[in-house]
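Follow-up to my earlier ticket, as requested here are the two runs.
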Amino acid sequence: MRPIRIAALGGSLRSGSVSAAALRVCAARARAAGAEVTVVCGTELVLPPYDPEVRFRSAREARLLAALRRADGVLLASPTYHGGMSGLLKNALDHTEGLAEEGYLDGRSVGCLAVAWNEVAGASALASLRASAQSLRGWAVPMGVVVPAGTEFTPDDICTDPRTTRRLDILTDQLLDFARTHRAGHDPAPHRTPTPTTASRA
């Protein structure tokens, strides 16, 4: 059986981004659990404003859609901008209209995290991430994480705050568990030779 595939999207262009670091922590945990993780972050998400009239799709958009198409689960990470997700990530999610005929993110678990300087703005941004995930027919996992903007990460992407680390671990584990459960319920059953009935033996 192939491993679980995760598409991890990070919506910050800032050097030393806390949301990107938190995303990498989750990606590392998912890989350690045997998942294949494709990270699409920062400049890789720089796309033209979504225009439904444009038929040409750029190489970056094609890569984004391919990663989402293959994924069993999706991670969304964003800094909080004025109480919502970044425009970079929102525009990338708008481009998932290219998956409309395939049901958008239907059948995929989605984990969401936001980074904020205060809890009210962070909760609002997290809610916007979850609302977008659900509008795209994804299954937002119960755990959502607001990472304090002052959280520090080591150069090898280890979070120095145990409480935040624990929350990111739970988020990642739920994402993987939900993805496995859904896939198990939709994979074809293994072929078995029918057991002869009494009537067939007669």
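Run two:
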Amino acid sequence: MAALIPPFTREIATTKVRLAEDGWNSRNPEKVSLAYTLDSAWRNRAEFVNGRPEIVAFLTRKWAKELDYRLIKELWAFGENRIAVRYAYEWHDDSGNWFRSYGNENWEFNAEGLMQRRFACINDLPIKESERKFLWPLGRRPDDHPGLSELGL
């Protein structure tokens, strides 16, 4: 496979989306932060995050609140150095209330293939535990697990 740097082909964009999904499913903030530039700028919902230290702090807080987090991302569109994804993730709070969060992200990459800008819009839907669809063991989504389109999401 070609290097995962711009300009993107469909194959490279799809691979970058899956690698991002795998990273976030690891729930390892330090590891995830390495995919972003040192001065990466995010908007996540109404929160603005700048740079790797703030990314690590943000993800640490996120995964302390969003328990048993499981994520699926899907490529929506791509251009020379940009990728748009849609995604959903399931999690529960410390009271056992389950949610499926739906979102869209716009990503912009530098010449080395690190994400320099990330804009995320997310909506949380309360669900019953019996309505969960992301049932693999914590960690990477198995290759044979359906994606968002196959799940009708």
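The only thing I checked on run two: Strands lie at 36-44, 47-50, 67-78, 82-92, 98-109, 115-127. Let me know what else you need.
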